[in-house]
């Protein structure tokens, strides 16, 4: 008797050629069409209308065990194979559609959730003006444009045509309106020599564009409401953290911003621990509480916290992935645990040659921005390139309570003040709250590791540049500013990792 698992295609799916000539799975229940490569299309066609074993498939398509295992696992993650995984995903489709409807309503009446943690990140504006010197000064709402056009202020008096107050920016093929840059200084046309805002000075805070008032607040929307966190990019973060009012006192301000069209990001519902491991929204919140319960009292232990988070999450994902597996050939690639050693040895994280090439390309872009008088962004990119090189050279902070003897050839580790450690722990507290579920929990955690380690190396580079072996808040503030303003460049770091082993070998049911 053959006890091998039989694989089936989910009911109602059709493998077809699209009008463009590529293979796809048409999926009416999940309202999508999934594009396929030729090999995966052949595999699905071999399964379509049959119940087949992996052995049958391998023999018919000429695939060895490892290749078959890899392809079946990838297809399962697309919810096209019949089984508990697809059933759970289909059960969550209503929640997805309900949330899509919820997001059509204004966010300003939703429940607000404040930042979490023992000493949550916080911010009170100290008017550094550095938020007005970025490449894109927007997006402006229609009401912003009408209001600003109608105001009389220094810059408005200086230009003949109101159009010159604004600029149209193309981001990934979409057009957005922002405040224009002054051709001479590269700053916002409304920003004065003392870095303060003309509109604010002459007409009050409420007259400024919503995006200007929103910075550095970051809003995520989930079925539970609006989650408030920070873009830790304020160049006065240390002072602004001290100057902050309690979060609860900002409720009216935040609701007004949301009412006026402040931008927010919609959480991916259903959430997935990892690609193809869906989780009901209600199940995420207890896990998040579990992760914050691991937060150490001492911020200097932030690496230990993140290592513990990685371990808990890897076990949780592995458990759910195994429970949902369609058969023994379908597995989940365990990757999170591999990042724990990198927390102690950050210089091992990236392929050295690729990191140097990436740093070089960032430095070239910095030079280009400098020629275009975009000094703030040019400085930021210069620092990101320096931070990446510093990380690869082994520049790092001493881990309290650990053996910090530098391996041969590496520089000795630097020390940090408690407040500087607090800033680094803020990265974890701030991003763990919601960012990890924007895509997949595992991908979010990996991005968090990269961000923390780069910020640390950059802060060390900054201290050393000052001639100090002690990292202070001036260094961490600047490091946070650079990394939080450089999302695309940080995203690319995920593509230059040092050899993380054979992905197929990492598959584990
Ligand atoms: S409008 Fe004012 S607050 Fe907004 S970017 Fe320009 S100077 Fe800064």
Lay out the secondary structure.
Layout: E1 14-17, E2 23-27, E3 32-36, H1 38-47, H2 54-61, H3 65-76, H4 84-91, H5 93-102, E4 112-113, H6 142-150, H7 154-158, E5 166-171, E6 174-179, H8 198-203, H9 210-214, E7 217-222, E8 225-230, H10 237-243, H11 251-259, E9 265-266, E10 271-274, E11 277-279, H12 281-293, H13 302-324, E12 332-333, H14 339-344, H15 352-371, H16 375-393, E13 415-416, H17 418-434, H18 441-465, E14 470-471, H19 473-484, H20 487-493, E15 507-508
Parallel strand pairs: 4-8, 7-9, 13-14
Antiparallel strand pairs: 1-2, 2-3, 5-6, 7-8, 10-11, 12-15
The structure holds iron/sulfur cluster.
The site of iron/sulfur cluster has 12 residues, from helix 8.
Task: Explain what the structure shows.
- This protein is an alpha/beta fold.
- The protein has 3 domains: 69 residues; 160 residues, no CATH class; 238 residues, no CATH class.
- 45% of the residues lie in helices and 11% in strands.
- The chain has 20 helices and 15 strands.
- The chain has a 4-stranded mixed β-sheet, covered by helices on one side.
- The longest helix has 25 residues.
- It is globular.
- 41% of the residues are buried.
- About 1% of the residues have low confidence.
- The site of iron/sulfur cluster has 12 residues, from helix 8.
């Amino acid at each position: 008797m053959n006890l091998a698992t039989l694989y089936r295609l989910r009911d109602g799916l059709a493998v077809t050629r699209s009008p463009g000539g590529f293979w796809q799975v048409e999926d009416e229940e999940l309202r999508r069409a999934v594009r396929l490569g030729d090999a995966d299309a052949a595999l699905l066609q071999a399964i379509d209308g049959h119940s087949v074993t992996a052995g049958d498939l391998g023999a018919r398509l000429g695939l060895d065990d490892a290749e078959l295992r890899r392809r079946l696992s990838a297809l399962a993650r697309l919810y096209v194979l019949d089984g508990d995984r697809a059933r759970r995903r289909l059960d969550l489709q209503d929640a997805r559609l309900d949330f899509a409807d919820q997001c059509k309503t204004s966010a300003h009446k939703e429940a607000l959730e404040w930042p979490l943690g023992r000493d949550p990140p916080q911010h009170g504006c100290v008017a550094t003006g550095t938020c007005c010197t970025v490449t894109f000064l927007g997006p402006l709402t229609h009401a912003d444009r009408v209001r600003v056009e109608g105001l009389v202020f220094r810059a408005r008096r200086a230009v003949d045509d109101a159009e010159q107050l604004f600029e149209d920016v193309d981001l990934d093929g979409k057009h957005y309106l922002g405040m224009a840059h002054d051709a001479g200084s590269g700053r916002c046309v409304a920003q004065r020599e003392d870095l303060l805002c003309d509109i604010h000075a002459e007409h009050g805070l409420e007259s400024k564009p919503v995006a200007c008032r929103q910075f550095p607040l970051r809003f995520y929307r989930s079925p539970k409401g609006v989650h408030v966190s920070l873009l830790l990019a304020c160049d006065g973060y240390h002072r602004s953290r001290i100057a902050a009012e309690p979060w609860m006192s900002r409720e009216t301000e935040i609701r007004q911003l949301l009412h006026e069209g402040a931008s927010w990001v919609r959480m991916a519902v259903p959430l997935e621990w990892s690609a193809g491991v869906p989780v009901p929204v209600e199940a995420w919140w207890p896990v998040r509480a579990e992760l914050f319960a691991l937060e150490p009292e001492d911020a200097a232990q932030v690496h230990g916290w993140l290592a513990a988070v990685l371990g808990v999450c890897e076990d949780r994902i592995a458990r759910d992935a195994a429970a949902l597996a369609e058969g023994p050939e379908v597995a989940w690639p365990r990757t999170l645990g591999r990042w724990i050693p990198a927390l102690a040895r950050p210089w091992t994280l990236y392929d050295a040659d690729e990191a140097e090439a990436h740093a070089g390309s960032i430095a070239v872009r910095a030079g280009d921005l400098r020629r275009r008088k975009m000094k703030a962004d040019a400085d930021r990119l210069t620092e990101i390139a320096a931070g990446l090189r510093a990380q690869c050279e082994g520049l790092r902070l001493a881990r309290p309570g650990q053996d910090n003897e530098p391996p041969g050839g590496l520089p000795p580790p630097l020390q940090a003040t408690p407040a500087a450690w607090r800033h680094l722990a803020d990265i974890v507290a701030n991003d763990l709250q919601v960012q990890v579920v924007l895509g997949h929990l595992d991908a979010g955690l990996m991005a968090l590791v990269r961000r923390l380690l780069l910020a640390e190396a950059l802060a060390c580079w900054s201290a050393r540049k000052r001639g100090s072996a002690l990292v202070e808040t001036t260094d961490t503030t600047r490091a946070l500013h650079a990394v939080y303003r450089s999302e695309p460049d940080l995203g690319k770091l995920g593509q230059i990792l040092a050899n993380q082993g054979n992905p197929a070998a990492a598959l584990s049911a």
